[in-house]
Each structure stands twice: as C-alpha cells, then as structure tokens.
TrEMBL record:
This is Crp/Fnr family transcriptional regulator. It comes from Flavobacterium rhizophilum. InterPro entries: cNMP-bd_dom, cNMP-bd_dom_sf, RmlC-like_jellyroll. The lineage of its organism: Bacteria, Pseudomonadati, Bacteroidota, Flavobacteriia, Flavobacteriales. Residues 13-113 form the Cyclic nucleotide-binding domain. Pfam families: cNMP_binding.
C-alpha cells in the first residue's frame, strides 16, 4: 500500500522490521482524512489511538481559566497522540487539533499492544518511540528553563522553519511561553537580518 510508504520509512528508521512483522503491523492500520479544525481527541476524552501524519500539522493544547496553552506541534512524518491518556488510561489532558487538512494513518493502541506481544522487533520499535518522546519532552523543558524567548525562537527557526511560517502568532507564542507582542518584535528583528 503506497500510502504507508512514509510510515514504513519512519518505523524502519527506528528499527528494521522483518517483512512478515511489517505485514502483521500493516493489518491493524486504517487510513483517514481530516479537515482543518477537526480534532483527533478533546481534553477529557480517553485516548485509544496513535496517529501517524502522512500529511498535515497538529497542535496539542490545554485550557486553563479559559486560556489556551500550546504544548506541542506535530508535522507530516510524525506520530501524535494524547500520550498521558494512552499510557495511564485517564482522561486526556490535551486537545489535539488539526491546523490544516490532513491524511492520517490510525493505529489502534490495543491492537498495537497485541502486535508488540507477537513481535520482538515491533516491541523494539515501540520502546524506541517511547525513548524518543521522552528525549523530546526533556529537551523542551530544558529550553524553557534555560533559554531566553529569543533563543527559543531561533532554535525553533533552525529546526522547523515551516512551523514558524505556518503557525499563527497566538499559537506559536503560547508554545514558546511568551506574549504575542514579544514574538512579533522578535520576528521583525529576524526578518530584517
């Protein structure tokens, strides 16, 4: 199935699966399309799926006292889910919103766990994905604690220039932990350079 090529490349970059294991994994997958503004999950719901973005961008956020706090963005070629809910079985603490039309491979978590039991190589991919998620989260926390807003913006520009171009000032400033006015000033400064 050609639509799974990007997912296969991403999985194999973590750990090579034997062909029989890949075929077993591919059987649990479904393919869905979403429109801009749709949600994969809302705060308070239970998460049962992991999503692979064939095409599209998502934003993870939570509400506190009526204000949105953006905690993550995910892009084409990445996995996204409400990890806290998926792992603990508790209600999701985030909403995952599509920022553009998207094509998504849906992986049911219950089926994925059964696949891990049947496939040592599959379980290795799962472990490496979890390790990667932990490393990304730790890196973001360290940046928030040790870098200025301008330094965080520059790092984001270096890693994800498409993020900076495509995401609204409101969502991007929330993600960076700064006021929209401060982000606008920083953007203007770097636009001149």
């Amino acid at each position: 199935m050609d639509s799974l090529k990007k997912l296969q490349q991403t999985v194999f970059s973590l750990h090579q699966l034997p062909e029989a294991d890949w075929d077993m994994f591919a059987q649990i997958l479904t393919y869905k399309t979403y429109k801009k503004g749709d949600t994969l999950i809302k705060e308070g719901e239970l998460e049962h799926y992991i999503y692979f973005l064939e095409k599209g961008t998502t934003r993870n956020y939570f509400l506190k006292e009526g204000k949105e706090f953006t905690v993550a963005f995910h892009f084409s070629g990445e996995f996204v889910t409400a990890f806290y809910s998926l792992i603990t079985g508790a209600a999701s603490i985030v909403t995952i919103e599509l920022l553009e039309d998207a094509e998504v491979v849906v992986i049911p978590y219950r089926d994925l766990e059964m696949f891990y039991q049947k496939s040592f190589h599959g379980a290795t991919v799962g472990r490496k994905m979890a390790e990667m998620q932990y490393a990304h989260r730790l890196e973001k926390e360290m940046e928030l604690l040790s870098l200025t807003a301008e330094e965080r913006y520059v790092r984001l520009m270096e890693r994800n220039p498409e993020l900076v171009a495509a995401i609204s000032v409101k969502h991007l400033s929330s993600y960076l932990g700064i006021q929209p006015e401060s982000l606008s000033r920083i953007r203007k400064q770097y636009a001149r350079n």
